[in-house]
Amino acid sequence: MKWPDTIQDLLDSGMTQAQIATACDTGQSHISALLNGKRKHPNWTLGERLLSLRKERMSMSRNNESTGVAESGAAA
Fold first, then answer.
1. CA distances to 36, 60, 75 from 10, in Å
2. Domain 3-67, what fold?
3. DSSP for 27-74?
4. Chain-centre distance of CA 49, in angstroms?
5. Three-class DSSP category at 75
6. Count of alpha carbons within 13 angstroms of residue 51, beta-carbon side
7. CB 70 within 8 A of CB 64
8. For the chain, first and last CA: distance in Å?
9. pTM for the whole thing?
10. Among candidates 65, 64, 52, which has minimal Cα distance to 6?
């Protein structure tokens, strides 16, 4: 697993590092360190939370694209 890619996917979905950190019950600096390669691996719990959040966000993105709904909830 490439953790910087996972975090970048979350950032690309519209989340900030702070929002990712809050959703995963960690600090923004921890997310930043994983993104920038200063930390190579999260602990098991954080890794599971990041993967779950990514899956959720990617699913939301696909659903919005298929229904024509923009991120804000307005029609595209």
1. 14, 12, 22
2. 434 Repressor (Amino-terminal Domain) (1.10.260)
3. -HHHHHHHHTTSS----HHHHHHHHHHHHHHHHHHHHHHHHTB-TTSS
4. 9
5. strand
6. 10
7. yes
8. 33
9. 0.80
10. 52
Q: What is the pLDDT of residues 29-71, one digit of tens each?
A: 999 999 999 999 999 999 999 999 999 999 987 777 777 655 5
HSE-CB for 11 with a 13 A CA cutoff: 13
Residues, the chain: 76
Axis-axis angle for helices 3-12, 44-67 (nearest 10): 40
Q: Which residue shows structure tokens 């960690």?
A: 26
